[in-house]
Structures are given as C-alpha cells and as structure tokens.
Design brief:
Blueprint lengths: L7 E6 L2 E3 L2 E3 L4 E6 L17 E2 L4 E10 L4 E4 L2 E7 L3 E9 L10 E8 L5 E4 L4 E5 L5 E9 L11 E15 L3
Parallel strand pairs: 5-8
Antiparallel strand pairs: 1-4, 2-3, 6-7, 6-14, 8-13, 9-12, 9-14, 10-11, 10-13
Length: 174
C-alpha cells in the first residue's frame, strides 16, 4: 500500500484467486499511518528486550483503536534500572504537551514494576524503585498508555511522546 495517510487506520485481508475460484482469507491484519517514527529504543515491547535506563530517553507510544473486532493496538515500552545494594532509584517521566502543567499533573501513562500493580504516572513526579537487598538488582518495569480518554470520536490514532529519566540514586529508606 503506497498511499498510507497519517492518522489513518487500515484493515487488510489476503484473498487468493486460482483461475476463477476465489479463496477468501479468514484473518485480518491491522495497520495505521502515524506522523512519527518508532523511537530509537524499539523493539523494547517485552521484558526480554527492555532498554537499560541510565540517562534521559525520548520515547513514543503508538495507540490505535480498530472498530472491527474491537481490536486495540497499544504500544508499551519496557525498561530496567540497575539499583545498587541498599539503594533506591528515582525515575521521572514527562509527557510531551504537558510541559506547562505543574508537577503531579495527570498524564496518559501508566507504569508497572514487575510484581507490583500498575500505577498512573504523574507529570514530572518521582517514581521510586527500591533495592533493599545486599546485591545489585535490575528492576524491570513497563510504561504503557491509559485507555480511558485516549481516543476521541474523530481520532482513533494517538501517539504519546514522553521523556523518561534516571533522576538519582539514593540511600534506601530515605
């Protein structure tokens, strides 16, 4: 398909024809046009491909809603931080477009550390990852979009741009 429009959704089905007989495909493939490229850290959509977070990273999440079969395509980004023994790490996430809002403004993002429940991300608010053990630990987590309020009646394609930073490492318990 060479005429893909930005912010448009596409549903494809592969049919085959042998002579005059048509064989209709049973499965659909979903695609969309977006006005951005994948971020430099893709393919970090799984824990096994998590990106090492040690400095500021600019990322994006593509989100598409398909009416056919109620399919949602929601990108997610996996990261990990190496936290020294008896230390905590503070990460900060800032969503593009919310720069003029204060700290703790609501974003369209959630975060989930492995073994914990998902939590909403507040703009520029520190998220603490702690290592109470006596060994260095890699703490894995994912950042993903909230589904409520993500799409409007006129737009079913959204790209969330954000920056994620390792802000500081400090003594555990402080």
């Amino acid at each position: 398909d060479t005429n893909v429009e930005s912010n448009s959704r596409y549903v494809y089905r592969l049919d085959k024809k042998r002579g005059n007989k048509l064989f209709k495909g049973k499965n659909y493939s979903y695609a969309y046009g977006a006005n951005c490229r994948k971020d430099a850290y893709e393919n970090n959509n799984t824990e096994s491909n998590a990106t090492f977070l040690e400095y500021d990273l600019t990322c994006n999440l593509s989100c598409v809603k398909y009416e056919t079969e109620g399919v949602l395509h929601l990108d997610e980004d996996w990261f990990f931080v190496t936290v020294p023994p008896m230390r905590s790490a503070e990460i900060i996430i800032s969503q593009k477009g919310l720069e003029n809002t204060g700290v703790n403004a609501e974003t369209q993002l959630n975060i989930q550390v492995i073994g914990e429940i998902e939590k909403p991300v507040a703009q520029k608010s520190g998220i603490i990852l702690s290592n109470p053990s006596t060994n260095p630990t890699n703490i894995f987590f994912r950042v993903f979009p909230k589904t409520t309020g993500l799409f409007t009646a006129s737009s079913c394609v959204t790209v969330i741009e954000y920056t994620i930073s390792l802000n500081k490492i400090f003594n555990y318990g402080n």
